[in-house]
Write a structure and sequence with these properties.
Layout lengths: L17 H11 L5 E2 L14 H9 L14 H13 L10 E5 H13 L5 E6 L3 H9 L3 E8 L5 E2 L1 H6 L5 E7 L11 H14 L2 E5 L15 H4 L5 E6 L11 E7 L5 H13 L5 H4 L1 H7 L2 H4 L7 H13 L5 E2 L8 E2 L2 E2 L9 H12 L1 E2 L1 E2 L9 E6 L4 H17 L4
Parallel strand pairs: 1-13, 3-4, 3-6, 6-7, 7-8
Antiparallel strand pairs: 2-9, 4-5, 8-9, 10-12, 11-15, 12-15, 14-15
Length: about 400
């Protein structure tokens, strides 16, 4: 047998892993499964804004040829203005790369930046895109703890304790997936201080920055640290309901220290000729259309009401603890292991799937191993979400240790 590469042996994707495959098997056998495993709004009746539809259909001919390796000028100019409005300083269109989702951008940047045995600090819990990219480029993810007792903000003492001579970068996911946390300004400033102190690169995944609720202030890390080399990641998948378009970008800031890395990214970008040009047609219209996104985040809006329904039910269940999300549509609750008969989070999730036909992802899928946690994607309609949580509550009652 031809063996697979060592670099892929540690890759895990529980979101579409064994539990998901079991759900597909059940569906094929005729069982209806409510899949709360992946953040794919269009699967639950969300539709793309008319502004995006119009922009793409009316300019489709412009996307027929290869476009600029870095991205269409009109799209990059709009992205430039957007990040300037978020406070980023000293950036130009040449600092912006558009690609096939943040996934591709993360892969390019990690390949260009991280060498074998280099370490990168990542949050725990962490969206597996990032840890998997560390493995595939041969570097080492080192996880710093985020604290549920502090609104899931990073534990800065833990973060600093894990910095050593091999550390090259700090990844921040804010707003966060899987917790839905929005980090405080104080926390972000202290992370920037650590990057200065130890001469580290900051990577800031901010794709949910337009999905912040409760009028909570949200800060771009690069704007708070204009002197620190930083790469900011963003995109349209969630805020404008176009996951399948695969439209994401990254922005270099913080002076010239990252010029060599940016040059390496240019080499990688040129290898694939250009990003999907059709999706780039959506960027100017999408970033100009704030209202369609904001409408989802206020009372009466789907994301707001679905969160309310989920939390109202779960917060009343004995043995469940949770920190309400402040952005996006994820919840990362915990179960008190002493009150239930589950061996671990994987056992819980598999039994829930088999008994209630609800698919959630255990905490280990997000590199979290402290306690029994799982991620819920709160995208079905309010009524469906409430009924699903009542089913979950019933399931937990049946598995309660008497």
């Amino acid at each position: 047998m031809i063996r697979k590469s060592e670099r892929v042996r540690k890759i895990h994707s529980d979101i579409r892993g064994p539990l998901y495959e079991e759900a597909l098997r059940m569906q094929a056998a005729g069982t209806k499964v409510l899949k709360l495993n992946t953040g794919n709004p269009a699967s639950f009746g969300f539709t793309l804004p008319d502004s995006v539809r119009k922009a793409v259909t009316e300019h489709l001919d412009e996307a027929v040829p290869y476009c600029d390796v870095k991205g269409m000028p009109a799209a990059r100019e709009t992205i430039l203005r957007y990040h300037q409005s978020r406070g980023l300083q000293g950036i130009t269109m040449d600092d912006i790369f558009i690609g096939n989702g943040v996934s591709e951008m993360a892969s390019m940047l990690m390949t260009a930046l991280m060498g074998s045995a280099d370490e990168i600090l990542m949050p725990a819990p962490c969206y597996s895109l990032w840890s998997n990219n560390a493995y595939t480029c041969g570097s080492i993810p080192v996880f710093y703890r985020c604290d549920p007792e502090n609104g899931w903000n990073p534990d800065l003492k833990d973060m600093e304790s894990k910095i050593n001579v091999a550390t090259k970068a700090i990844l921040v996911i804010n707003p966060n997936n899987p917790t839905g946390a929005v980090y405080s300004k104080e926390t972000l400033l202290k992370i920037a201080d650590l990057a200065r102190k130890y001469n580290l690169v900051l990577l800031s995944d901010e794709i949910y920055d337009r999905l912040v609720m409760d009028d909570l202030p949200n800060y771009s890390l690069a704007a708070l640290a204009p002197d620190v080399p930083c790469v900011t990641f963003n995109g349209l998948s969630k805020s404008h309901i176009i996951c399948g378009f695969r439209c994401g970008w990254m922005v270099f800031s913080g002076g010239k220290e990252l010029d060599e890395v940016k040059g390496a990214v240019m080499q990688l970008a040129a290898m694939r000729l250009c990003g999907n040009a059709v999706t780039q047609l959506a960027v100017p219209a999408a970033l100009a259309d704030e209202e369609s996104t904001k409408a989802m985040l206020v009372p009466g809006g789907r994301l707001y009401d679905q969160r309310k329904a989920t939390i109202e039910v779960l917060s009343k269940v004995k043995g469940v603890s949770l920190v309400p999300n402040r952005a996006a549509f994820y919840l990362f609750p915990a179960l008190d292991k002493e009150q239930f008969d589950f061996e671990n989070a994987q056992d819980f999730a598999m039994r829930l799937l088999h008994e209630k036909h609800i698919l959630v992802i255990p905490g280990r899928g997000f590199d979290w191993h402290e306690d029994l946690r799982f991620r819920i994607v709160m995208l079905p309609g309010e009524k469906v979400m409430r009924e699903a949580m009542e089913e979950l509550a019933d399931f937990l009652e049946k598995h309660r240790i008497k």
